[in-house]
Amino acid sequence: MEQKCLFCAIANKQIPANIIYEDEKVLAFLDINPLTEGHTLIIPKKHAENIFDISEENLKHISIVAKKIANTMKENIGAEGVDLIQASGEAADQQVPHFHLHVVPRKSTDQLGLHQWWVSRTQKGEPDKLGNIAGRLKNVEMLYPRFEEKVKKPKEKKKSKKDVYWIKRAVQLT
User: Fold this and answer.
1) N- or C-end of the chain: fewer Cβ atoms within 10 A?
2) Hey, which residues does 83 pair with through a beta bridge?
3) Long-range contacts of 59-63 (CB under 8 A, 24+ apart)
4) Distance between CA atoms of 173 and 132, rounded to whole angstroms?
5) In the predicted model, is pLDDT for residue 119 greater than 80?
């Protein structure tokens, strides 16, 4: 645990929180300054400051938990959609130096205005500049090869004479 980390203290139950989900890897609790009703934070129990520090395993697990929470928001509090927000680093306005994913339930009537805010800050991308940036980012595949889960197929068990008899019998009956 990082010294004086607010979210580590919450994960260790040193500070109370309205916990809505917990397992061995993560904790999810209601934000005390919600954007909308039900606004939830998901944190890894093992301290990681930001996206650059969190293990891929914990990041994947947080994504799975976010989907479960989003579905629960849809079913139980009438969310029509959700925003997933994550800020990493001071330049991104990360306020608490412990990785956290915001799951913000949305309704068409909530007037949060994220889309209008986003559009008000966007700029028209110049094709040459975008092409240059894309070229510099494309090597992500070489640096970090695609993660593919290897699914082991169970070895096919050799069928006994008894199994073969019953299979033939079943085929004859149909």
Assistant:
1) C
2) 104
3) 61/25, 61/26, 62/26, 62/99, 62/101
4) 67
5) yes
> Pairing mode, if any, of strands 19-22 and 40-44?
unpaired
**pLDDT on residue 84:** 97
Q: Which amino acid is at 76?
A: N
CB 112 within 8 A of CB 35: yes
What confidence category does residue 134 fall into, taking pLDDT thresholds of 50, 70 and 90? confident
Give start and end residues of each alpha helix (H) in the chain. 6-11, 56-76, 114-121, 127-137, 140-143, 161-173
d(CA 84, CA 66): 8
Under 8 Å CB-to-CB from 104, ≥6 apart: which residues? Answer: 34, 35, 36, 39, 40, 82, 83, 84, 85, 112
What domains are defined for the chain? 6-110 (3.30.428.10)
Residue 148 has a pLDDT of: 57
**The residue type at 122:** T
Residue from 18, 54, 10, 53 nearest 38 by CA? 18
- Which pLDDT tens digit goes with each residue over 32-74? 999 999 999 999 999 999 999 999 999 999 999 999 999 999 9
Q: Which of the residues are catalytic?
A: 100
Residue pointed to by tokens 């593919």: 148
CA 105, 107, 113 angle in degrees (round to 5)?
90
